[in-house]
Specification:
Layout lengths: L1 E10 L7 E2 L1 H5 L2 E4 H8 L5 H11 L3 E12 L2 E2 L1 H17 L5 E6 L11 H13 L4 E5 L7 H6 L2 E4 L8 H16 L5 E8 L15 H14 L5 E5 L12 E8 L2 H17 L11 H10 L5 E4 L15 H8 L6 E6 L1 H10 L4 E6 L11 E11 L2 E3 L9 E3 L3 E6 L2 E6 L9 H5 L9 E4 L4 H5 L5 E4 L35
Parallel strand pairs: 1-4, 1-6, 2-5, 6-7, 7-8, 12-20, 12-21, 13-19, 13-20
Antiparallel strand pairs: 3-4, 9-11, 10-11, 14-15, 15-18, 16-17, 18-19
Helix pairs in contact: 3-7, 4-5
The structure holds zinc ion.
Zinc ion binds next to loops.
């Protein structure tokens, strides 16, 4: 038995001005052919899980290409052409295969291509004909009609934070092998509720609707009612007509049952839609309330500038609010600003200079903050992740500087980097727990990293990854759609 495997993951954001290039994929991993198996065997990604299952089953693995580009806006047209070619040319050259497994994010967007996963599946289908194509996605995938029709089945991550990436690869490969050995006949039906929900309450632990949905899906699988039930609450910053809260249900040769359960799942999500709302605070209000909270760092969550969701990481909106508040307690913030790093390097440690910080990559949401900055430290920007799925992995934010601007320790970096815990602050020599206010730029990881913090305020700030979804400049999304609209009868198409 020969099974071709490949991966292409990238989380896009149509509301972000960021354009991503091949370097963003090369900075994570790009593996071709036999190197794919050699490098990813025993690791924590989907391909690692699939390799373990397929090798144990005695299957001949036909390795295609595997890469992850992180998150951003749109992938450039040139990079997209190159990535698609590297994934699919080896499939064309492979001769006959019995099955294909592709690990895709599901929310990739490219210049000139709104549905890259659908395009990949269309070409893969044209190459292999009717053989089973197994697909796995992030639970933030925007599942299109094209994807649902061309994939034999879609298995999504079950967890957010995504702690089951490798397991998703195992589950997908196992179901594909079971299909090819005639043990199951998977059929899938996909339904959507016309709603998008902010990220914090998509968490699958604790007291959230998603935690309940997670348990319900596992119960259906354990009872043998379905082969797999996936909830996909979707990456909510995709301005496409049919973006929505999705259920993908796979049964053993029972399409009517799959459809009935998928409909039941999205109907329940719709019924509980209001539970996904999170209280939002202006930076001024959050700082005022934070001053009244007991000891410990108060977390100001600027989720609107989340690098992990396609933000540019260079918003200075909260820095402005911290400076305007005239604080006499320490605060810290990370801002991507290569120009300010170079100015700090030119000035030297211990010197002061007139800085214009942030809002250069994404100037739409405000001007740079102009202030006198003292260079406290210059450093390389390398760090090791201590939290999340990248824990233990090396990363870099490029040459960086620690600036003192009033009471605020401003870490400026050359490149953007996602925060899983407090790695970037520690790399800068700042202990965030000794600060009164810590500005984080993510909706999820900070809930784990600062679980002991006395208060966390999710901010109502402008940016392409805001939790205030109704405030975004939507153009293409089909109306009515919650939370832009409410009080209408949904169709669950
Ligand atoms: Zn995700």
């Amino acid at each position: 038995m020969r099974i071709a495997i490949g991966a292409l993951l990238f989380e896009g954001n149509t509301l972000s001005p960021v354009v991503n290039e091949l370097i963003d994929f090369q900075n994570k991993y790009c593996e071709d052919g036999p190197r794919l198996v050699a490098k990813l065997r025993g690791q924590g990604v989907e391909m690692s899980g699939a390799i373990a299952v397929l090798e144990a089953e005695g299957v001949e693995i036909v390795p295609l290409f595997a890469s992850h580009g992180g998150a951003g806006g749109r992938v450039s047209a040139g990079a997209w052409r190159e990535l698609k070619t590297r994934l699919l040319e080896p499939l064309r050259a492979a001769g006959e295969v019995d099955g294909v497994y592709l690990a895709l994010h599901g929310a990739m967007v490219c210049q000139g291509e709104d549905d890259p996963e659908g395009a990949i599946l269309e070409e893969a289908r044209a190459i292999v004909g009717s053989v089973p194509i197994a697909v796995s996605t992030d639970l933030h995938a925007h599942v299109t009609r094209q994807m649902a029709e061309l994939a034999t089945f879609i298995v999504a991550y079950q967890l957010y934070p995504h702690d089951d990436v490798r397991e998703t690869g195992e589950r997908s490969a196992r179901m594909l092998v079971d299909t090819l050995r005639g043990r199951v006949r998977p059929v899938m039906r996909v339904r959507k509720a016309p709603m998008i929900v902010p990220a914090p309450k998509q968490r699958t632990h604790g007291d959230t609707p998603m935690a309940d949905f997670y348990r319900q899906a596992r119960a259906r699988e354990a009872a043998g009612e379905v082969l797999c039930a996936s909830y996909l609450p979707v990456q909510p910053w995709m301005d496409f007509p049919d973006v929505g809260f999705t259920a993908a249900v796979i049964t053993d040769d029972d399409p009517a049952l799959a459809d009935a359960i998928a409909k039941e799942m999205v109907r329940e999500a719709w019924r509980r839609r209001a539970e996904f709302a999170v209280p939002l605070y202006t930076p001024q209000e959050a700082i005022r309330r934070g001053m009244e909270v007991g000891p410990g760092p108060v977390i100001l969550s600027d989720t609107a500038d989340c690098v992990g969701g396609g933000g540019s990481g260079d918003s200075a909106v909260v820095l402005r609010a911290l400076l305007d508040a005239g604080l006499d307690v320490p605060a810290t913030i990370l801002i991507v600003d290569a120009e300010t790093v170079r100015q700090a390097q030119a000035a030297g440690v211990g010197r002061r200079f007139s800085a214009r910080i942030g809002n250069k990559l994404n100037p739409v949401y405000g001007p740079p903050v102009e202030a006198q900055a003292e260079v406290a430290r210059l450093f390389e920007g390398r760090f090791t992740y201590t939290g999340g799925i990248l824990a233990g992995g090396e990363a870099t934010m490029g040459p960086s500087a620690l600036l003192r601007v009033g009471a605020v320790r401003v870490v400026v970096s050359t490149h953007s980097s996602y925060e899983y815990a407090d790695e970037q602050f520690l790399a800068a020599g700042v202990d965030p727990r000794a600060c009164r206010f810590v500005v984080v730029k993510n909706p999820m990881n900070a809930q784990t990293a600062y679980a002991d913090a006395p208060a966390m305020f999710i901010l109502d700030t402008p940016g392409p990854t805001t939790c205030n979804l109704a405030a975004l400049p939507w153009r293409r999304i089909t109306r009515p759609r919650y939370p832009l609209d409410d009080g209408f009868v949904p169709d669950f198409a």
